[in-house]
Amino acid sequence: MLLTTQWRGHMSSRSILSILLILFLITSVSATYAGDRPLEMAYFTDEPVEFIFTTGNSTYSGSLGSGDEYTVAFPISLPPDAGIRYARVYLYWSWSRIGQEAIYPEFSVTLSEPATHMKRYTDSKGFVAANDYFSGMDIFEPPAIGYNDQEIILHVMNNAEDDRTVVIIGGGLLIVYTSTSSEPGMLWVMEGCDMLYATHGITPAMATSPIAFDGSVRTRDVTSATLSLVAPSAGYTRTEIPEKNAVFVNRERGSNLPGFIESIISALFPGYNGKVWYDVFQADEINQIGIATRDVRQYLRSEGNRILVQDNGDYFVLNNAFLDIRYGSG
Asked: Of 135, 120, 48, which is closest to residue 88 (Cα–Cα)?
């Protein structure tokens, strides 16, 4: 189960210089902790399906040098008639470096047999500062999964031939399947890597990643709608920060109405202006993969469903989003 500017007239050289400076600053910001790498839609279906996502027994690895190994076991429980539609294993990693220089990691990965590497997403601070190292997510296609399979083992080795090190936050297993018990509906699977942190001049509004779930929804027929988000490091901080992260669902930021009027309208018409939740991610010192799951049924729109994932001093990397809408057996 589980978002053209046209210039006219004449400009002075000073105006042109000012515009170039602004563009430079915007370009610089777009490569920092700001939300500049929205997740991409990797899979969508409007057929009856179900899905499972698990991080198994993932733990924070600490720094892994060349030859060091890491293992995660993902339990599997599928109905006898399950037909696999989409399956992926995700490897979440961070702090990939050699000394104080950022460098991409080299992995040797098996999933009970050599794994098929599908894609790598990465992000970084993007500006010269201490600890500006790469973080990312590698995606693998698991071997054929059957009803009798009890688990999938992800085995990773730092395969670098030099002194580069990397930290593995953990792994994730996604399986989308059909079954006679599956209800009609829609499922979006979004994947990517967007590092968010409201610091170094990046405001919370800038440290916001939009996710768009394009498509038409029969809102009157929806019986359930679940949004699930996966963000390594989210929700785990050494010092408690109030409202350190937030998720906006079809929420127009800002309102001209007084707060008490807004509350009354929200009570009378639930979902009229979407919803915002704060401190949504759950993680701890051992399993630092932040997970957030919310019922979004009453906040859905028939078209143009959008969410915003925002950092406010938490620091995390947004990697996955799943929106599962069901219409019930009717």
From this structure: 120
